[in-house]
């Protein structure tokens, strides 16, 4: 069955262009012009991936709101922001809300398609992990790869797909530094600036469960390490 991709974009020509390009790649595409229309559809059926603009009709921050609503429905659904807004504030805001990727509309269609394919490969890679990796334990950390669920000291930590992948990569290689380039490759992220934002968000989520959490160590000039 073809994977279903939802596009939420208020400009009809742009929406049609993206929808056509994705459909040519064999995806089942559902396109929506505004947040209420998309949200109503998502309550009936969640897509396998969502591509969202930030400004939607008369809602300048509608995409941010929709991202939060989607995250409340599913922590695992891959979400990409595709927008004309390229400020650091907007990028950080999008990632803080749980987006897995953030692209600007000057990106080429081949690059967009590559980002979509990369997110789906990440889902498949986690799902297809060998049985020995179905459950990863590092001290108080437990990662259930089949369920994409994380626990710290027995308490659940709500990680997005990207965040889970990053924690899995770091914890699997505990004690070893993972460079930004390595994390970018493993997590299929756009640039190393998003690495910093994701790590900060991951730390905050663990600190909600345990205020003393300090297992992700920044190694100056090198990258990050999961402390043994």
UniProtKB/TrEMBL annotation:
Q: What CDD domains does the database record attribute to this sequence?
A: trans_reg_C
Q: Cellular component terms, GO, for this chain's entry?
A: cytosol; protein-DNA complex
Domain OmpR/PhoB-type intervals: 133-228
Which residues get modified to 4-aspartylphosphate?
53
GO BP: any one term: regulation of DNA-templated transcription
Q: Which residues bind DNA?
A: 133-228
Q: Which residues form the Response regulatory domain?
A: 4-120
Extract the signal peptide range.
none
Question: InterPro entries, alphabetically?
Answer: CheY-like_superfamily (IPR011006), OmpR/PhoB-type_DNA-bd (IPR001867), Response_regulator (IPR022305), Sig_transdc_resp-reg_C-effctor (IPR016032), Sig_transdc_resp-reg_receiver (IPR001789), WalR-like (IPR039420), WH-like_DNA-bd_sf (IPR036388)
- Superkingdom field: Bacteria
Any one Gene Ontology MF annotation carried by this entry is: phosphorelay response regulator activity
Keywords assigned by UniProt? DNA-binding, Phosphoprotein, Transcription, Transcription regulation, Two-component regulatory system
Cross-referenced SMART domains: REC, Trans_reg_C
- Which PANTHER family does the UniProt entry name for this protein? DNA-BINDING DUAL MASTER TRANSCRIPTIONAL REGULATOR RPAA, REGULATOR OF RPOS
Protein name from the UniProt record: Proteobacterial dedicated sortase system response regulator
In the UniProt record, the gene name given for this protein reads pdsR
